[in-house]
Design goal:
The chain is mainly α. The chain has a domain of 242 residues. 72% of the residues lie in helices and 0% in strands. The protein contains 14 helices and no strands. α1 runs antiparallel to α13 and α2 packs across α12.
Length: 363
């Protein structure tokens, strides 16, 4: 197969994959007797047509940035961490324990402590599958899947039997102290001129952007990042170069789990202000699609997270203002994953026909 130029690989392939997913989605909408044009208009207007819509889009995108980065770091070490959902849930438990432990006077003090708790709990939940992979040969895909279910059961137990306040019926913690409430974009000086209404997007968005930059710095500007990428490309070559597979596996998975755990700052501390049973809302699994769409590059993850934030908010608007079911957004997400992941090779083969070197005929 012809090797594509780098710009085509990074830009053209994802765009064509996205276009194909959009075409199939339009056909699905037509098949259920609805208008694709009306659906697109509603999604764009609801997700991008106002500062209020952008506030929800950026809120969802913030969570997807963290989980997408988590998949990205592990992927560069040739580790497919699909346990971001469970790691994020455990990160939420860490946030809840920190926020409920003290009467925090101000969010600037509570936020760093909650970030440490989220990262430690997420990393700890990823450490066990990492150890089993590095020392016992248990495949990380299988173990991380299993740990997602274990995490869900553990969270239910903690909410029902340990953290639920007396007399409360729903499985959730008490509300966090007022001093832990994170400022939304509406309350941040400067941004308040744009976001004139209360929106769920909060200061965690800025942390997610910094995380994108730090992951890029780690992977492409540090010795550890070189070791991670070298190990991911060829374990035998890495061994020959003196790189420890156990060390790289453990560190990469710990960083990956910490990033997934940090996602809970956005929804547990920033939006709901308490730990709920399904606080992650599937963001750990969507992070896999975000990483695939973003070509496992932090900047690509940022763009893909915005796209999936648009799909999430736009899909909610479809269910609210049209007769198109909200579940359609799941169909669109699945098609995007299908074309950017499973059918990625097909798009590359098609583009290879155009970028193949033309043979000159000799007279």
């Amino acid at each position: 197969m012809t090797r594509l130029p780098r710009w085509a690989d990074l830009v053209l392939v994802p765009l064509i994959s996205l276009l194909l997913a959009g075409i199939i989605s339009a056909l699905v909408i037509l098949a259920i007797g609805q208008s694709p044009t009306e659906a697109l208009r509603t999604m764009v207007q609801g997700a991008l047509g106002s500062a209020y819509g952008w506030g929800y889009t950026l809120y969802y995108a913030t969570s997807f940035m963290f989980t997408g980065l988590a998949v990205t770091v592990a992927f560069h070490a040739s580790l497919f961490n699909i346990g971001g959902e469970g790691q994020a849930q455990l990160g939420g438990l860490g946030v809840a324990l920190i926020c409920l432990a003290l009467p925090w006077p101000h969010w600037t003090l509570a936020l760093p402590a909650a970030m440490i708790g989220a990262a430690l709990f997420g990393a700890a939940w990823a450490a066990i599958p990492a150890y089993l992979q590095a020392k016992r040969g248990s495949h990380v895909v299988i173990t991380t899947i299993m740990f997602n279910y274990i995490a869900a059961a553990l969270i239910i137990y903690m909410l029902v039997s340990v953290l639920r306040p007396a007399g409360q019926m729903d499985p959730a913690t008490a509300r966090f102290p007022e001093g832990t409430n994170l400022p939304t974009l509406h309350e941040i000086p400067g941004l308040s001129l744009i976001f004139t209404k209360q929106v769920p997007a909060n200061v965690t968005l800025l942390i997610a952007l910094v995380a994108c930059w730090l992951v890029w710095l780690l992977l492409w500007r540090t010795r550890l990042g070189y070791e991670i990428r070298a190990f991911g490309k060829s374990e035998k070559a890495a061994l020959y170069a003196g790189i420890s597979p156990v060390r790289v596996t453990m560190i990469a998975m710990l960083i990956s789990g910490a990033l997934a755990g940090l996602m809970s700052i956005n929804n547990v501390m920033g939006e709901s202000e308490r730990l709920l049973q399904n606080s992650t809302e599937g963001a750990g699994f969507i992070g896999i699609a975000v990483a695939l769409m973003g070509r496992n590059h932090p900047f690509g993850v940022f763009l893909a997270a915005i796209l999936f934030g648009f799909l999430f908010q736009g899909g909610a608007e479809l269910g609210l203002w049209t007769s198109i079911p909200i579940e359609l957004r799941t169909v669109v997400q699945g098609l995007v994953i299908l074309f950017t992941g499973a059918l990625d090779h097909m798009v590359r083969m098609f583009l290879g026909l155009f970028f193949a070197p033309r043979r000159t005929q000799v007279a």
